[in-house]
Design a protein that fits this description.
With about 400 residues, the chain is an alpha+beta fold. Helices cover about 70% and strands about 10% of the residues. Helix 13 links the parallel strand 6 and strand 7. It starts with a helix and ends in a 5-residue tail after the last strand.
Length: about 400
């Protein structure tokens, strides 16, 4: 009767703790309650089988039956997890490997303790609790990474299982086998633990390197996005969103630069202030969409008329400005301005709508009619309005005296 109690305790510990360990490694879909139900069912089956084998006096067959029962239960528990079949098989074999190592160690260590049968059960329980604690506290994330990469490590796990299970199945007396093959089993357990430890350690390092590389790529991508955003912001800040030409703010910055360079090099440049005549009628008659198209067309024509060193900008509405740089001969400025005036008078086609505009252009020359950007713009604007007062559609140079 005493042997029956010992075997019941030891078998119950193995069966129940195997289920808990299995669900520690896999995380049940149904949480703690589902694990309790399964563990209780396995406990009941184990009690019945232990009593049956004890009555027939075959403890070796009981040991084999426990492993077979666990295999069957394991397959039946697969739907309770979120793992694929191969991931579940990998985890299941790992649980079996841990079980066989714990059975051997608890059996061997208990032989040197008082009351070996009870010590065996107690050590087995302690070893299971220690393993479950280690996985819960330190190894779960690493193990989940191993499971996700099961094709890499599956051969290793299968080899460990085959080597360990040989000593449990190829025998008629399990206790005798564990005693006779004590040192080969210690070597096998040591190698198995080293193999699992190497897998966890190496994969942790690989995952850390991968995470670092991923983070670096993420930082690079974010830097690229930030750079693109900075370029866009700069474009929005310095360029007109409709025509793509430099806006008023950027134009005045460039104008100050040109003034400073001309002072340094004793150079001369001309500033044109352009206002479109008849643009308001186009907006009123055809709508702002057509008006915007006309402004874009005007911007494109101005770009075609200037040199690479010159600057053209949209100051707002239908007003544009141009800087003709390095003008030594005023005839060059007059010729370029005349070309612009003529081109702007050409009809602009907007689908089926033909739009005609003219331009009033005022010109101020540095340093003849202004020594700074603000004065030059004011004088060019004044010359442009003088053209408008005289009937629009023409070119006027600012003069110091009327």
């Amino acid at each position: 009767m005493n042997d029956l109690i010992i075997n019941l305790l030891r078998g119950s510990v193995s069966s129940v703790m195997n289920v808990i360990l299995l669900f520690t490694l896999t995380r049940s879909k149904f949480g703690r309650n589902g694990t309790i139900v399964v563990a209780t069912s396995v406990f009941a089956i184990n009690m019945a089988s232990t009593i049956w084998f004890y009555v027939h006096g075959d403890l070796t067959a009981l040991s084999k039956f426990d492993i077979i029962m666990f295999l069957v239960v394991g397959l039946a528990l697969k739907p309770m997890t979120r793992l694929s079949f191969m991931q579940w098989s990998f985890t299941f074999l790992t649980t079996l490997n841990i079980m066989m190592m714990i059975i051997f160690l608890s059996f061997d260590w208990s032989r040197s303790l008082p009351m070996p049968p009870y010590a065996n059960t107690f050590l087995r329980l302690v070893l299971y609790i220690a393993v479950i604690f280690l996985f819960k506290k330190y190894l779960r994330l690493s193990y989940e990474s191993v499971v996700n990469n099961w094709p890499i490590f599956s051969v290793l796990v299968v080899c460990i299982f085959l080597n360990l299970s040989y000593y449990f199945y190829a025998t008629d007396d399990i206790q005798k086998s564990l005693t006779v093959f004590r040192w080969p089993l210690y070597l096998l357990v040591t190698l198995s633990l080293a193999a699992y430890g190497t897998v966890f350690y190496s994969l942790k390092k690989i995952m850390a390197m991968y995470a670092l590389e991923t983070e670096n790529l993420k930082i690079q991508n974010e830097s690229g996005l930030l750079h693109q955003a900075a370029i866009k912001l700069e474009k929005y800040a310095n360029y007109d969103t409709l025509t793509g030409l430099p806006n008023r703010r950027f134009f005045f910055e460039r104008l100050e630069q040109v003034v400073a360079e001309s002072k340094r090099d004793a150079g001369k440049f001309a500033l044109l202030y352009i206002d479109l005549d008849g643009f308001k009628d186009i907006n009123d008659n055809y709508g702002h969409e057509v008006g915007d198209g006309v402004l874009v067309a005007v911007g494109d024509r101005l770009l075609k008329c200037i040199r690479k060193t010159d600057i053209v900008a949209r100051l707002g509405g239908d007003e544009f400005a141009i800087i003709f740089r390095d003008i030594e001969d005023m005839e060059i400025a007059k010729k370029l301005t005349g070309k612009i005036h003529t081109m702007l008078q050409e009809t602009i086609s907007m689908g089926t709508i033909e739009c005609a505009v003219n331009s009033s252009i005022g010109i101020a020359v540095y340093p003849d009619t202004g020594n700074d950007g603000e004065t030059l713009v004011r004088n060019a604007d004044s010359a442009m309005y003088e053209v408008k007062r005289n009937g629009k559609g023409g070119i006027g140079f600012f003069k110091d005296t009327p």
